[in-house]
């Protein structure tokens, strides 16, 4: 199984994937997750066709994550 | 040197110790991954639009997908209101009453130049996970505009 984090940007999104059974891939993905959060992005778990769930911390077993830039009004 | 000072000094030295090489590699990987979005001066193109559409469609229920195809909008249930998210970058979120009439219109989008379908997906996620934050941060938008 491969898990994926999609980061929204002007190209649509950028993806990073990892195998949850590989410690080195998990460590790299967690570093990206933490860096993304430090920049103020909100990260969500988004199972296909379901409601999203906000993620406060990295969970290597979440299959699909979406990182959304900070919200700005109008 | 007094013992307490040695303890303070040791603490400071340890705090300033450079990260281990493995940590540095991880940090570099993360920074590299994030770099292009920090220097983002390009407007989204057609390929970006297509990518964002795929990302959005994957996140929608079959019913929401059908609405998006047929009408260019989809409905999202919040704790307080139901919403209609229309195709658009701004002023595209309608709050609906129980009869489906528009009672309010909001404008809130992700920072930066992201394609329109990313905007819609972000709005869906904000409403589903933290509607109160969305309502607090979104700007009201005139209904008849």
Number of domains of chain B: 2
Total count of helical runs of at least 4 residues of chain A: 1
Structural class by sheet pairing and helices of chain B: alpha+beta
Largest interface, C-beta closer than 8 angstroms, per-chain residues: A-B, 39 and 53 residues
| Strand percentage of chain A | 35-45%
**Relative helix content of chain A:** 10-25%
Proportion in β-strands of chain B: 15-25%
Shape designation of chain B: elongated
Assign the CATH class of chain A. Alpha Beta
Number of strands of chain B: 5
Strand order of the largest sheet of chain B: 1-2-3-4-5
- What is the N-to-C succession of helices and strands of chain B? HHHHEEEEHE
Q: Which structural category fits the helices and strands of chain A?
A: alpha+beta
Give a topology summary:
The complex is a heterodimer of chains A (74) and B (145).
Chain A: E1 3-9, E2 12-18, H1 23-38, E3 42-45, E4 53-54, E5 64-68, E6 71-73
Parallel strand pairs in A: 1-5
Antiparallel strand pairs in A: 1-2, 3-4, 3-5
Chain B: H1 3-15, H2 21-38, H3 46-59, H4 62-71, E1 73-77, E2 82-86, E3 93-96, E4 102-110, H5 116-137, E5 139-140
Antiparallel strand pairs in B: 1-2, 2-3, 3-4, 4-5
Helix pairs in contact in B: 3-5
């Amino acid at each position: 199984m491969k898990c994926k984090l999609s980061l929204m940007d002007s190209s649509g999104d950028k993806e990073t994937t990892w195998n949850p059974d590989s410690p080195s891939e998990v460590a790299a993905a967690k570093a990206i997750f933490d860096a993304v959060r430090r920049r103020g992005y909100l990260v969500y778990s988004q199972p296909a066709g379901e409601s999203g769930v906000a993620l406060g911390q990295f969970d290597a077993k979440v299959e699909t994550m979406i990182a959304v830039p900070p919200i700005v009004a109008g | 040197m007094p013992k307490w000072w040695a303890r303070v000094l040791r603490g400071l030295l340890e705090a300033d110790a450079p990260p281990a090489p493995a940590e540095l590699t991880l940090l570099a990987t993360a920074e590299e991954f994030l770099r292009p979005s920090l220097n983002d001066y390009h407007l989204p193109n057609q390929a970006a639009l297509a990518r964002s559409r795929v990302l959005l469609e994957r996140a929608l229920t079959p019913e929401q997908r059908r609405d998006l195809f047929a009408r260019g909008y989809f409905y999202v249930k919040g704790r307080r209101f139901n919403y209609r998210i229309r195709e658009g970058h701004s002023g595209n979120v309608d709050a609906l009453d129980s009869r489906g009439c528009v009672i309010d219109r909001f404008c809130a989008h992700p920072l930066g130049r992201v394609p329109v379908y990313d905007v819609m997906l972000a709005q869906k996620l904000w409403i589903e996970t933290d509607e109160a934050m969305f309502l607090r941060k979104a700007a009201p938008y005139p209904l008849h505009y």
